[in-house]
Specification:
Elements: H1 2-61, E1 67-73, E2 83-88, E3 91-96, E4 101-104, E5 114-115, E6 118-121, E7 126-132, E8 135-138
Parallel strand pairs: 5-8
Antiparallel strand pairs: 1-7, 2-3, 2-6, 3-4, 7-8
Length: about 140
């Protein structure tokens, strides 16, 4: 008679252990998918920000005024991380620290215009692009 009670207790322990194992496996599977999709979202957001800033720079370059500026509203975070917008001699970079990067050569307008080296942190939520003669700078 005592063996029946031990078998029932053993079955319950095995069933409980199996349920906990399934829960832990499900948790790690969904957690890994979440991190993969978060990386995709971060890259897509960086691409969208790059396109917005690049289009603003190009529209400013095409303006007939020799000195002008434009204010561009930008999100404060990409993928829940602050990011940087950097204008260099060869184009525009949008990147997160120790992470993904997006680059635009601005249609090789650096052959006609001078891109002054500047880097902006996204925390302000806005970006000012200045055009002075043939020079472009971000602030």
């Amino acid at each position: 008679m005592a063996k029946i009670g031990q078998v029932l207790a053993f079955e319950q322990i095995v069933l409980f252990s199996l349920a906990v194992s399934i829960f832990i496996a499900t948790y790690f599977i969904f957690n890994s998918y979440t991190s993969v999709y978060a990386e995709f979202a971060e890259y897509d957001q960086l691409e969208q920000i790059k396109e917005t800033v690049a289009n603003s720079i190009l529209s400013l370059l095409l303006s007939t005024n020799s000195s002008s500026s434009i204010v561009v509203k930008i999100p404060k975070f990409a993928g829940q991380k602050p990011y940087f917008i950097a204008l260099r001699e060869n184009g525009l970079y949008v990147y997160v620290r120790n992470g993904r990067e997006s680059f635009s050569n601005l249609y090789f307008m650096n052959k006609t215009y001078t891109f002054k080296k500047s880097t902006i942190l996204s925390g302000r939520g806005k970006l000012i692009i200045y055009k002075t003669g043939n020079s472009i700078i971000l602030k």
